[in-house]
Amino acid sequence: MPSIALHARQHLALTPRLQQAVRLLQLSSLEFQQELREALDTNPFLEYVASETGEAAEAANGAAGIGSAASPAAEGPAMAAEGAGESGLEAGMGQDASPYGETSYGETSYSESGYSDEGSGYTAEMPTSGALRTSSYRGGEDGDSEASDWVRVPITLREQLHEALRLSPLDDLDRIAAQVVIEALDDDGYLRQELAELADVEGGADTLDEDRLRVALRVVQTLDRPGIGARSLSECLALQLDAMPDDTPHRELALRIVTQHLERLARREHGELQRQLGCDAASLQAASALVRRLDPKPGNHYGRADGGYVVPDVIVRQVRGKWVVSVNPAIEPRARIHKLYAEMFARSDQTSRSPLAQQLQEARWLIRNAHKRCETILRVGECIVARQKAFFQYGEIALRPMLLRDVADELGLHESTVSRATGNKYMATPRGIFEFKRFFPRELETRTGGTCSAAAVRALIKEMIDAEDPRDPLSDVILTQELEKQGVQVARRTVTKYRQMMKLPAAEMRRQI
Predict the structure, then answer these.
(1) Where is the RNA polymerase sigma factor 54 core-binding domain (predicted)?
(2) How confident is the model at residue 94 (pLDDT cuts 50, 70, 90)?
(3) 443 HSE (CA, 13 A, CB side)
(4) Both 50 and 117 in a single domain?
(5) Predicted TM-score (pTM) above 0.85
(6) Residues 105 and 41 in one domain
């Protein structure tokens, strides 16, 4: 028979504050900035701290109003009053609501005795949504405008084609058909959608049929750069050859190659090409050179919407022979508790369960967790630089194999914390911007019993291919043998995988006649 019984057990649970700390740590820099902006917009107890230039100006003018960046000493009495209203908060919110507890990522705890958010906090300028603008000022008494308003914006492919279409003498329906084709083009200039599908989407047989769209496509292909509006690589190259003067040497032979034998040319089957085309080796070489000068993606010459920005979390510099790691000032949280609002709340009769009390507590959690996020990322970055110091001196060939566990053991963190601190995080170095995960290559054994990293093997393969004879390129088997001579034992399929990861073609594709 069913029965009801009570069982007592213990289990670990993340408090709301720790959940927020874990979530902030695994965010990328852009997502973190967005999170802070949303908090500044919705929480009245948070205020944005002005830049240091603005702070100096306010200090010189004796400004001490709302939003001024006062010193920690000046803010002490205000925060003391704020703390007077916290006792009820802590009693009502429980242990996890204590503003001076411990923040834990995974299984590691951090003491916060060395940090205070009393007005000054861990602050740095937080960029606005318009990253290129320095302010939202739109002109003063003299009518001056921003310098960024004069920045040239590159015209996109579709904008250029629409402008050229206005000069074409077409009737209304043909113009609409051409506009439909222009909007269907990809960023590289190709039309990868079938004309029949465009006709179905844009209104059926009574308005835009397939024949009318085919005529409109021919018009679009003549509006600007040759090759725009092509439906395949062969057609794109053929359009560019058709646009050349008739007396261009070897133009007809090149046209036959791109329309009938493009795959053979890609596989460098020159003997078969000579037999199929009935030409000599010199003519084939000249026609092939003409084809290689063509542009396979003509749409890339136009502007396109920028995306996929990478904002580094830490910056690595060499100072007096030592590598120094610092947090990128552009991503540091420049926010603090609003002094005036906190004082007003401390003098009010609000209970610890009121919505304002919860918002004040959330503001303190956010500031401390944001500080702890930057501190953890900085510690992990310093550990990576210390362990991979040879990379910054000699390049990727000097990368050592490293595991997340190695960094976790050295810093006293949990491995999951290191994983969150390295995911979607980037490091700006004199050699470029690299993701944190780039510095954790897997380990490969050498003939002498030592180890090397997979990144170093890829760098060796790249050096060998760069130094090879173009007329006699190195195959994957030969590359495997050369690596064996240097003490690196890898299989041929591993060499093939690494070569493909670096987007290097096979030996047959690299051979030059």
Answers:
(1) 152-341
(2) very low
(3) 9
(4) yes
(5) no
(6) yes
